[in-house]
Design brief:
Helix 2 packs parallel to helix 4 and helix 6 runs antiparallel to helix 7. The termini are far apart. By secondary structure, the chain is an all-alpha fold. The chain has 12 helices and no strands.
């Protein structure tokens, strides 16, 4: 709040910079599970940005996306849907489909529709999203076709596609085997040194029944995650215990 007050005093309450600070504070409130407060901050920032730079500005669209999530978390589903749709439409027009913010908005809206029992309505959007991700990957592979391995290239595209293909909102379109391929490539590129990528790989192993590999990958993620990232460590630890329990069950069944 002090940084927001300082920005307002230095640049004026109607400055785009002040609106961006509101957005950052809103994200903090969201992470602290205070969606009502986050929504108020997003609205204030959006009011400034829409007046000063227009609703099609990237910054306004970013805040609109955050507002949709905050409203969703607060249970204001009707208004959340309006913002999910408005943000996606704005990003399609301003950025095009093959940009990460647009793909994220597609994913947000599709997941929302599935959660609100409209999987049939979400399906065309999910298919478009999967197709867009695969097109980006094909382009990345084409750029590296002359190298010794097609796995060389942006790890983030592999990681994001693997995450998508394992997401529960995909329903029968989930593809853990394809996700595993991309997760392995992402970690090969980064030397198995990025905990979030390792976490995605562990999930892919788990979903394909490779529990020993999943457990080993989660242990590495834990080893690489510093103590101050307690939330991530708890998540990895919980899933590691689940994996170990499944492995113990398997051993017991074989022994029996």
């Amino acid at each position: 709040l002090k940084s927001l007050d300082a920005i307002k005093q230095a640049l004026g309450e109607r400055s785009p910079e002040a609106a961006e600070v509101m957005g950052r504070l809103a994200r903090i409130c969201t992470s602290m599970e205070r969606p009502d407060e986050a929504a108020r901050l997003y609205r204030s920032g959006l009011e400034v940005l829409r007046d000063e730079v227009g609703s099609a500005d990237r910054r306004a669209l970013t805040l609109g996306s955050g507002l949709a999530r905050a409203l969703d978390a607060a249970g204001e589903h009707a208004e959340a849907e309006e913002w999910y749709r408005d943000t996606l439409a704005g990003r399609r027009q301003t950025l095009g489909v093959a940009e990460e913010p647009t793909l994220q908005s597609m994913s947000d809206l599709a997941a929302f529709l599935v959660r609100t029992d409209r999987a049939d309505e979400a399906r065309p959007l999910i298919l478009e999203l999967i197709d867009a991700r695969r097109k980006l990957l094909r382009a990345a592979y084409a750029e590296t076709a002359m190298t010794s391995s097609a796995a060389h290239g942006p790890a983030v595209l592999r990681h994001q596609t693997a995450q998508l293909l394992m997401d529960e909102f995909l329903g029968d379109l989930r593809d853990p085997d394809e996700a595993l391929r991309y997760a392995i490539e992402a970690n090969d590129i980064t030397g198995h040194s990025v905990p979030p990528y390792l976490d995605t790989l562990a999930r892919a192993y788990h979903l394909t029944g490779a529990y020993e590999q999943s457990a080993a990958t989660l242990r590495r993620a834990l080893d690489l995650t510093p103590p101050e990232m307690a939330h991530h460590r708890r998540s990895y630890g919980r899933r590691l215990r689940e994996c170990e329990a499944l492995l113990a069950e398997q051993m017991s069944e074989r022994g029996g």
